[in-house]
């Protein structure tokens, strides 16, 4: 039996799970279920990445010991998976003793082979990225990810001789076109390797700086670099290199990641495996990013989508369907509830749901809700058979190479084709004219193709697919069902089987009418409302007092201006970068250019309304509002009476 072994990234526990994590795990689940239905022994694993500076800081911020904090967040990931109908074969934490043992054995193995050495290194260390940057990689002296100035650190550390394997890896990527897919990420990985000398990788951190990590087996004064630790979860989750699980599944290994972590997977990981004399993985599958309002999701911007919220509101199956259908694997996609509702109504309610309800209603009316026995085929059925076979073949081929969106589209050609077939064959007219054999053939073909569709959508919408099969009176066992056998055969349904009298699988959904919140004006930017808006404003004029609950919704924080410049397209605005103690400084656009020279603001502390919805202003986005007091002579910034830590809340 062919094996299929897929991994998701091992998610950091510095934040709770969001749409992005949910997406990758759902994709892994869909791919695994699909492979199982193609006859493979298929499993996927996931887990949590719990060591390193970032986690220690998050624990400190939460006022908890790292052990307690990591367990809580890790548990929230673990608890989410069944709610999203995802069924990982294993869930591994990097703090699990079995994993720690595996990492230490691996380190020792590479150390013994001579590929780890001790040396002195000086570099620009970004705490957010937990890595050193070379001079060349910095942008204006800043970390390109976080826009913060890294700290120059010079210290003795252990290094992995990654450079030794650069040529081997280049050849491997060149000779195996689908090693990294889609193509654009293969090109990107090759470009990384070709852009200059591949440097050796610093794989330790001195305990004087960080203790929350796995101790190096050959030097107790150092812990292991988080990436060298986390990547090994892909092996420890199977039971380790000596285990049966590893022997069974590792030869079929594939990884699934988003583009943000291409480099560690495309470059660090294969060279690490090579150095340890272990076989490398077969495929690295790289998907794009879900953007919300065209931006990366971030707690500080306030555009984080909760997967559970969506699943509760629209149903987990519909949510899974939307995610898989909407994103072209490899590209970024935009998440919005409007797009979700539109997709559910068009594809699920109109196309699929409608097919089920009309065919089951006709079967009830004309055949007493029993599957009829088909008679001879006409060219209409022959066309339908061709369409169904092509559609299933394409679906199977496309899902096999992770092209989910196109695969679903291929299957929907059959769904839509069946709706057309109903209209053309017009069973109601056949019934009226007493053409019973023809009526039975048409209804049989419809029900049989509906069964095939239910089986094919099972990996994507397991719950709904099982209900669809139940409505067709078909017993289902996910472990035994096989899709390949469905092509070329149209006799799966047993005539006489009782089917449901009606079906309401995918009711239409309405988007709750959302009132567009008026965009707040930046400091001192006066806008004359249009007359209509003025009237409306009057009608809903704010009361003289507000409730405490309303006030409590405003998140005001103190921060330091780290950079400031005129807005390139608006004379009145300044583009201010404020350090609010977040991963990277906030960009706030403020209408204060008439009162402050940009350089005078740098280093000043300001108060920012931090949870204001983002707003585009002349081509740039503003993520908050700086508070100021207007006086007769000018403008004064609102500040705390003394210097306070960045990110402190105004309460
Ligand atoms: N801990 C590392 C991975 C180590 S793997 C050995 C890490 N963790 S993470 O929590 O930041 O997860 C990153 C992954 O989460 C992405 O590669 C992707 O799978 C998923 N996503 C997070 N945000 C995402 C989007 N906005 N869109 C799609 N997926 C994203 O990196």
Key features of this structure:
six-stranded parallel β-sheet; five-stranded antiparallel β-sheet; single chain; 651 residues; alpha/beta; binds 5'-O-[(L-methionyl)-sulphamoyl]adenosine; 21 helices; 41% helix; 19% strand
Concise account of the structure shown:
The chain has 651 residues and is an alpha/beta fold.
Description:
This protein is α/β, with parallel strands linked by helices and 651 residues long. 41% of the residues lie in helices and 19% in strands. The strands form 7 sheets. Strands 3-2-1-12-13-7 form a 6-stranded parallel beta sheet, with helices on both faces. It is globular, with a radius of gyration of 29 Å. It starts with a strand and ends in a 14-residue tail after the last strand. The relative contact order is 0.09. Mean pLDDT is 91; it is low at 513-543. The structure holds 5'-O-[(L-methionyl)-sulphamoyl]adenosine. 5'-O-[(L-methionyl)-sulphamoyl]adenosine is lined by residues 9-12, 20-21, 23-24, 49, 230-231, 233, 257-258, 260-261, 289-290, 297. Residues 9-12, 20-21, 23-24, 49, 230-231, 233, 257-258, 260-261, 289-290, 297 line the site of 5'-O-[(L-methionyl)-sulphamoyl]adenosine.
